[in-house]
TrEMBL record:
SUPFAM superfamilies: Resolvase-like (SSF53041)
Listed PROSITE patterns: RECOMBINASE_DNA_BIND
Gene3D superfamilies hit by this protein: Putative Large Serine Recombinase, Chain B, Domain 2, Resolvase, N-terminal catalytic domain
Protein name per its UniProtKB record: Recombinase family protein
MF terms (GO), sorted A to Z: DNA binding; DNA strand exchange activity
Coiled-coil regions, chain positions: 351-420
PANTHER family (alphabetical): DNA-INVERTASE FROM LAMBDOID PROPHAGE, SERINE RECOMBINASE PINE-RELATED
Domain of life: Bacteria
InterPro entries: DNA_bind_recomb_sf, DNA_bind_recombinase_dom, Resolv_N, Resolvase-like_N_sf, SSR_resolvase, Zn_ribbon_recom_dom
SMART domains cross-referenced by the UniProt entry: Resolvase
Keyword Transit peptide: no
Source species of the chain: Vibrio aestuarianus
UniProt KW keywords: Coiled coil, DNA recombination, DNA-binding
Domain Recombinase as annotated: residue spans: 155-268
């Protein structure tokens, strides 16, 4: 930042830091910073015209590898898209300024492509070195060496040693861990444990900046399942378990007894009458990134008992700080527009038609891939220049994205038909009906996101498709919207929770698996032609 400030002062530039763009810890090599970090925010600001696009704006970077170290084609497309939007790029390494006109300057293009290629090669080597270092450290730990494998470790211990000689010592928070296990073994539920700690003013572990400083059943569950408490280091990348890496907090017997009790409770829960909630584990809050839970409430009015079902945000429970609305289950069902009246028996002729559609689309994809390969050859041989190549390749890539989404949508249709869904209506009191609708929703939808502020539900399918619908609420002063233009507002709100580190881990996995950060608002329904 100091170099940028010096350059700005010497060249009469004014630094605009109102966007608060920071890019710490995100690699440009795999393009993560483009989607989730500062560069992603900068590109969105260009699209929304939050940044002037009259040629007066400059993106200042140390060198090209801070813009992108991805493959040259991808890096050039990113470079070109910023300049084409009439936003200039300054590279401090060589004090060069690239403008929209630079795209017509062959020498500038060749020079920039050479630097991008160099950045990609260097990053590949760096990635290989990091992987080798990681493997070397893991081998040393597995062979009994006393080195520190990872900089992060559980909050109930401190490292009084060094990187080469770890010396973990339990601190005062270890007593909280012991108490959690003892309370659970004594029959207190996870929610009950969270309530006790919140009432006593005991803060949770792994609290991030701006996160809600409250215990929840999720916090308690993560500790009850964490093998670190018995001294094990679990390496998620490889699946290795290193015994005796940490000092144990509880005995293996207590840990296994807790596991057995949790399994027993799960068995008893599933063996009884099934919940009428067909959205289990799929509803999340836009405002805080936490999961919604299902709850039944009863009210007596004029001597008559009435039962209501609600979906409530777990970030609001136990004064967690979230101000999202409680939604009646029936209203949520109605708002999501999930098709709950259907007959979907297997139809061999319809299946054949869909498979024929997929075969035809695959041929189109094959042709497009061939055209891309031909473009590569033409660029390598010098038949076309980089500018022509970039324009043609960009169009082909856009077509490929559309065709691949069509294939995914058709495959989803086949999966639904093979599920043998066959029901005339959804009866929330019929276990068979509940299970069929649950299966349909699990096979079709990745998540449902609720924005209480916008009175909107965003339904995200496994294929990345999005449907936005309003929902009714007696406290609502704002009419919900189903306009696709509001998708980007909701996406920005969700991204904000992600950056703060407050988001439910399962929610994060779902969004990454469906490419939510790079999704485009659908304008065409390819479900069936």
């Amino acid at each position: 930042m100091e170099n940028i400030e010096d350059y700005a002062a010497k060249n009469d530039f004014v630094i605009d830091d109102t966007l608060n763009l920071k890019d710490l810890g995100l690699s440009a090599f795999k393009g993560k910073h483009k989607d989730k970090g500062a560069l992603g925010g900068f590109i969105k600001a260009i699209e929304k015209k939050s940044i002037p696009v009259d040629g007066s704006s400059y993106l200042c970077i140390e060198q090209f590898d801070r813009l992108s170290r991805e493959d040259v084609d991808t890096a050039y497309q990113l470079f070109r898209s910023i300049l084409k939007a009439n936003v200039n790029i300054i590279t401090l390494m060589d004090k060069r300024i690239y403008t929209k006109e630079s795209l017509n300057d062959m020498m500038s293009i060749i020079y920039s492509i050479m630097l991008m290629s160099q950045a990609n090669v260097e990053s590949q080597k760096k990635s290989e070195r990091i992987t080798a270092t990681y493997k070397s450290k893991l081998d040393k730990v597995k062979n009994g060496e006393n080195i520190l494998f990872a900089a992060r470790y559980p909050e109930w211990m401190d490292n009084q040693g060094s990187m080469k000689d770890r010396q973990f010592v339990l601190n005062e928070k270890a007593e909280i861990v012991r108490r959690i296990f003892q309370l659970y073994l004594d029959g207190v539920s996870m929610n009950g444990i969270a309530r006790i700690f919140n009432d006593e003013g005991i803060g949770p572990f792994m609290r991030t900046k701006n996160s809600i400083n409250q215990w929840s059943s999720g916090n308690v569950s993560s500790i009850l399942r964490n093998r670190c408490v018995v001294g094990d280091l679990c390496v998620s990348r490889t699946g290795d378990i290193i015994k005796g890496y940490y000092p144990p907090v509880i005995s293996v017997d207590d840990f296994e007894a807790t596991e057995g009790l949790r399994d027993k409770k799960r068995t008893l829960k599933t063996a009884g009458k099934p919940s009428i909630n067909v959205f289990t584990g799929k509803v999340f809050c836009v405002e805080c990134g936490r999961k919604f839970y299902f709850e039944k409430e009863s009210f007596t009015y004029k001597g008559q008992k009435n039962i209501y079902h609600f979906l409530k945000c777990s970030g609001k429970r136990n004064n967690g700080g979230c101000h999202s609305l409680n939604i009646k289950y029936e209203d949520f069902l109605s708002a999501t527009k999930v098709p709950l009246k259907m007959k979907m028996k297997k139809d061999p002729s319809q299946l054949r038609d869909i498979e024929n559609h997929i075969s035809k689309i695959r041929e189109v994809v094959k042709e497009l891939d061939g055209e891309l390969a031909q473009l590569d050859l033409m660029l390598d041989s010098g038949e076309i220049n980089a500018t022509i190549y970039a324009k043609a390749a960009s169009k082909l890539e856009d077509k490929l994205v559309v065709e691949r989404k069509r294939i995914a949508s058709y495959k989803q249709k086949i999966a639904q038909m093979n599920n043998d869904l066959d029901f005339d209506s959804f009866d929330i009191h019929d276990p068979k009906s509940i299970n069929k609708v649950k299966k349909y929703i699990n096979d079709t939808y990745a998540a449902f996101m609720v924005s209480s502020y916008n009175k909107t539900i965003l339904s995200l399918s496994h294929t990345g498709g999005v449907v936005i619908t309003p929902f009714k609420h007696k406290k609502s002063l704002v009419k919900g919207s189903e306009s696709t233009k509001d998708f980007y507002t909701l996406q920005a709100d969700i991204l904000d929770q992600y950056k703060r580190g407050e988001m439910d881990s399962k929610f994060t996995e779902i969004l990454e698996a469906t490419n939510f950060w790079g999704i485009e608002t659908p304008e065409t329904d390819y479900s069936f032609e």
